Amino acid sequence: MDLQFGLGTFGDVSRGADGEMLSGAQSIRNIVAQAVRAEEVGVGYFGVGEHHRREFAVSSPEMVLAAIASRTERIHLGTAVTVLSSDDPVRVYERFATLDALSNGRAEVVLGRGSFTESFPLFGYDLRDYDRLFEEKLELFVELLKEEPVTWQGTVRAPLENADVFPKTENGLRTWVGVGGSPESVVRVARYGLGLTLAIIGGAAARFKPFVDLYHRSTSAFGTAVHPISVHSPGHIADTDAAAWDAAYEGMEAMNNTIGRERGWPAYSRARFQNDVGPEGAMYSGSPDRVARKIVDTVRALGIGRFELKYASGPLPHEAMMRSIELYGTEVIPRVRAMLADD
């Protein structure tokens, strides 16, 4: 299997070279530049997340991805994730089919329930319907992927009667579902024959091997398509471990302590950070050699087809993220390929 390498961002509002916070608008423009750089250094996929709060600049990933599509030619473009539960499946399909046309078939969508809940009250949804919203909307979205007239009825939106949706894609829309650690979610992905993206943000990647095995058993039981599995995890790369860790810790501390205060988390400490970047943690931070070796361990443990590094965590400076992207493409990816060549 040919391993694909990706990068992802939640659109964190970042700092300038002077240490001051940038505007959301400038942060969005910087993301476009980061994606262009990613293609230049050989990255195969670029994902942009959806959020609706002040720490994150991107609430409409498709708009940002369309701008990236106009400035790139090869890199595949998708989300990390699209919060389907608080959106309309028909509109999501239409937007991504349009992105697919603009990008000449490079669009992908990663659907999720949303670990941040701001979009639910913002768009008039009740969090008590969290599970039902996603289940019904995913069911409808899978029907829309067939690109034929749809008849559907549920409880979370108006019914459809022989409804046709446009534009059509030229070769279908590649669709994944982001899963954080629920066996039921893995089985659901397999039942619909979609791609599985494992969001691993805590603990060693090897702990997720049971989910990989469950996905394969479930696709076999349902008789559905088997797709390569993707892993999405945070990290930061610099020329040395010390430089990477200092920058990543500053960003992670700022992000965790802001969001953590709302959620009752303990303060983020350097000791916790060092555990996160170690062998038993989920962060891929350090020098190119260290990050490459950790990615290789993950690929070997899980047998994945795509590794996606969430390269932006907290208000990192744009220049530091650009350097991280450059090292990922020019140093990390070649090292990983070389180490896996004999497997």
Q: What structural keywords apply?
A:
LLM_Atu2307-like; about 350 residues; 11 strands; about 15% strand; Bact_Lucif_Oxidored; limonene 1,2-monooxygenase [NAD(P)H) activity; TIM Barrel; alpha/beta
Task: Explain what the structure shows.
With 343 residues, this protein is α/β, with parallel strands linked by helices. It has a single domain (4-342), classed as TIM Barrel (Alpha-Beta Barrel). It is built from eleven helices and eleven strands. A hairpin with a 7-residue loop joins strand 6 and strand 7. Helix 2 (61-71) packs parallel to helix 3 (89-102) and helix 10 (288-302) packs across helix 11 (318-340). The mean pLDDT is 97.
Binned strand content: 5-15%
Radius of gyration: 19 Å
CATH C-level class: Alpha Beta
| Relevant CATH superfamily | Luciferase-like domain
EC number: 1.14.13.107
Keywords: Monooxygenase, Oxidoreductase
GO molecular function: limonene 1,2-monooxygenase [NAD(P)H) activity
Domain Luciferase-like: 19-303
